[in-house]
Structure formats: structure tokens, C-alpha cells
Amino acid sequence: MFCGALSGCHVRHPASADPKSGAHGRSPCICHNTKRGCVFSLSGKRALVVGIANDQSIAWGCARAFHAQGADLAVTYLNDRAEPHVRPLAEQLDASIVAPLDVRDDDQLTAVFDRIRDEWGSLDVLLHSIAFCPKEDLHGRVVDCSREGFGVAMDISVHSFLRMIRLAEPLMERGGTCMTVSFYGSEKVVEHYNVMGPVKAALESVTRYAAAELGPKGISVHALSPGPLSTRAASGIDHFDALLARTAENTPTHQLATIEEVGAYAAFLASREASNVTGTVHPIDGGYHIVG
Questions:
Q1: In the annotation, is 135 catalytic?
Q2: Which residue among 7, 23, 91, 273 sits deepest, i.e. has the most Cβ atoms within 10 Å of its Cβ?
């Protein structure tokens, strides 16, 4: 039988589960109604989501999952051009805080965390889902990448995660979860991914070091690594449609990951039940990482 505690739950429970009471026994369920015995909940938690560009974004899939599990949200948008695309999505999830954030602007970054401190007093979850490289450097050979382009890519894609963790740390006195988004091209050469491969490798490395440093404070740090997804950010990669088709063909499940699947995984990592998991790059790619 399937759980009916939350619309859209498709987890199969054993036949012994009581359909009247909604009891699930020990079977997994992503519902946030803990009174019915579900495994985990984000009720009472506060999550900052950075990186929503539109309803195709990985960050949007994560934000929806956090909200479905009961978390209160703070959502950022890049600039005035992005706001009309992001604010309506944030309002769909009843986000308490919606604010501009270009991570190259230290004042904006500080302002976001100051507002969280003033309005919430604490933070439980940080999701960093942003990356950028100048087009001329992204589309060229790694060995031809300019010093300026490499610096920009590392600053926005990697060091901004460290800056956010540093600002989140004092707000996570009860522990917390920090997550970023990587890609398989960090460890294997993926055609046309170019300099973003080394950049994502650096992102995964800082994830491990940050996890080791913050573990004693109960703060876990993770990198989510879905396979290629059709997002606006990914559209800047040359021949991306061919990469999508090739990946789906070679993936054991023959299916690309969805933003909903990434979100469900992220929501579990943000829960109390996953508090002893940290420092890991989590493939969410239909098994592509074992054959790619």
C-alpha cells in the first residue's frame, strides 16, 4: 500500500500498515506528519536557499522539498532582472525572507545573514546552488583559461560557499546542515565541461575540509552530485543536449535525475536523522557514476 499522509507520497509500505491510522511501522516515508510515524521531518527548521533562477533550478527542487517537510524558508535572487522569476516561486512556498544576493557583493551577503539573525535568531539549513564561469573561459580549453576567468569561477562557485558557511556557523548553535551542488565532471573528464571540472573538484574538497572542521559543532557539510540536468546554468555548456542524451543512455536506470529527486535527498540530509552523515559527495544520478 502507499502512504496517504501527504499528497504526492509514492513510498510503498508493507501490507501490515494500518490504512486507517496511517501507521507506517519502520517503513521509509518522506511525509512530514510525524504524528503518523513518518521517518523524518523538518518542522521547526529554518533553511536558506541560494540559487533559484526559475522552476527548473535544482535549488527550486530542494526548496520545495524543504517546505513540504515543514521548514520555513529564506530565498535569495541574484538581481532585479531575476526577481520577477524568483519572488513568485518563493511566495508559493510562503518564504518568510526574500532578499537579493549577488555573492560578489560582501554587503549583500552580510545583509542576508543579518536579516536571518534579526528575524529568526538561528539557521538550520544552508543550500548553496550557484556556479559561474565567464563564457570565453568556459568554452575554451582548460589550459587556455585566463587567470581572471579562473579566479571568477573559483570565487563564485567555491569560495562563496565558504563565506556562507562562515556566516551561518554562529547561527547554527544547535547544529545544522550546509549543502552545495557538484557534478561528476569533478572527478572524470566530461567533454565540454572544461574548467568547471577543476572548479567542482575544489568545491568537493572544501566540503570535506569544512565537514571535518565543523563536525564537533554538530554542523554537517555535503555536496549533492546529480548527473546532468536541464537547468539554465547548464545551458551554457557546449553540446549540452548531446550530453543529456548520452548520459541517459549509459545510466543504469536509463533515466536522468529530476530536481524533485535531488530535493528529496537534500531534505533527508537536512533532517535530524541524518545528523551523523557528513563530508560526503552524494551521487544522485541513476547510478551513472558507477559506469561513466
A1: no
A2: 23
Supply the DSSP symbol for 260: H
Long-range interactions of 208-214: CB distance < 8 A, separation 24+: 208/279, 210/162, 210/165, 210/178, 211/278, 211/279, 211/280, 212/279, 214/165, 214/169, 214/178
Which grid cell sits at 145?
A: 583559461
State the architecture of 42-290 in CATH terms: 3-Layer(aba) Sandwich (3.40)
Catalytic residue among 184, 193, 265, 288: 193
The pTM for the full model equals 0.84
Ranges of each domain in the chain:
1-39, 42-290
pLDDT, tens digit, 9 for 90 and up, residues 235-276: 555 566 676 677 777 778 878 889 999 999 999 999 999 999
Going from the C-alpha of 180 to that of each of 32, 130, 167, 198, 266, the distances in angstroms are: 23, 8, 15, 16, 10
